[in-house]
UniProtKB/TrEMBL annotation:
Organism: Streptomyces corchorusii
Top-level lineage group: Bacteria
Domain HTH araC/xylS-type stretches: 206-311
Protein name: Transcriptional regulator
Gene Ontology MF annotations: DNA-binding transcription factor activity; sequence-specific DNA binding
Entry annotated with the keyword Transcription regulation: yes
Name of a matching Pfam family: AraC_binding_2
Key words, A-Z: DNA-binding, Transcription, Transcription regulation
Upper classification of the organism: Bacteria, Bacillati, Actinomycetota, Actinomycetes, Kitasatosporales
Length: 327
């Protein structure tokens, strides 16, 4: 049975809060901010076909964001595929920016921060499934996330009508049929990911970028982590390292700071029997200068580290400050 949530009968002053809860229930926890405070309406319907969740969403202009704090609430690793049916969108993840038009596909990972900005009313279909069922290397998945995939030719042209029909007919499929269809979707998504990875002319470059990103994530707590130390670990020059990241939408130094701030934000928001000091959290994630950490955190999150902690521990997580905005 479909989960259908709509603002049609919700009072205007309650629509934004209702819509935030509706989208978070149907997809994953996110924040939705309507554009320019205009009148807002939205509708989302969601069905489960085995382990595949299919959602059909239509709403007015706005921004949908998934922050590190929201990821902390629902850490399950899901791969999502969005098919933009109408309107346009700008999608950002991992420093990559994808400009989408009607008919385009985009892969994204719900375990990492992302945002969609819709400048006008739009309609989209969203397909979510556990990352592990794809049977595709994490590196290949990461290489295609945040990239708009056209559907005018190739595998995209095969997928678009299939996914559109699947979304429209999802409520009508018996459970046994739904399970089989989920398996077919997994095969198609895995094939598209592999195809996109193999057709990339910068295959070696992208693998090196992924290696650098993984190295950064493993070494976040090391205060000596820097472009120089990363270059040494990968046997390349600092100049070449910076060249690798020219197409990533973020510099190496800013990526290090972004990932450290995300880690600090998650730890500061976490409830526990023992509450570490803000300075201890900062040191644990590689910040050696408390004043620099406080300035960087406020610039990224819009509040101080202590205010961020208070918002989470005293008021809960229904209203989240924006996540890091370094890119």
């Amino acid at each position: 049975m479909s989960l259908v949530l709509t603002t049609d009968t919700v009072p205007d002053q309650e629509k934004v809060a209702y819509w935030n809860d509706a989208v978070s229930r149907a997809l994953v926890p996110v924040t939705v901010a309507p554009r320019d405070g205009r009148r807002f309406d939205g509708r989302i319907a969601s069905d489960c076909l085995g382990y595949l969740r299919v959602s059909r969403m239509e709403a007015d202009a706005g921004r949908v964001s998934r922050t590190p704090a929201l990821i902390e609430r629902s850490p399950e690793a899901l791969v999502a595929v969005g098919l933009l049916v109408s309107g346009s969108a700008t999608f950002i993840q991992d420093g990559r920016r994808a400009e989408m038009a009607g008919g385009d596909l985009v892969f994204y990972d719900t375990a990492r921060p992302f945002s969609f900005t819709y400048p006008e009313r739009f309609a989209t279909h969203v397909f979510q499934l556990p990352r592990h069922v794809l049977g595709v290397a994490d590196g290949d998945i990461r290489r295609v996330t945040g990239t708009a995939i056209g559907t005018a030719h190739g595998l995209g042209a095969v997928l678009r009508p299939f996914l559109a029909t699947l979304a429209d007919a999802a409520p009508s499929y018996p459970a046994a049929v739904g399970h089989r269809l989920a398996g077919h979707v997994v095969d198609l998504f895995a094939t598209l990911i592999t195809d996109q990875a193999l057709r990339d002319p910068d295959d070696g470059r992208d693998h090196l970028v992924l290696s650098v990103r993984d190295h950064i994530d493993r070494k976040l707590g090391d205060p000596s982590l820097s472009p120089e130390s990363i270059a040494r670990a990968h046997h390349i020059s600092v100049r070449y390292l910076h060249r690798l990241f020219e197409g990533e939408g973020i510099t190496v130094s800013r990526l290090i700071q972004q990932r450290r701030l995300e880690a600090c934000g998650r730890e500061l928001a976490r409830r526990g029997r023992v509450t570490p000091t803000v300075s201890a959290v900062a040191r644990r994630w590689g910040f050696v200068n408390p004043a620099h950490f406080s300035r960087a955190f406020r610039a990224a999150y819009g509040v101080s580290p202590r205010e961020w902690r208070t918002l989470h521990l005293e008021r809960g997580e229904d209203e989240q400050p924006a996540g890091p905005t370094l890119t």
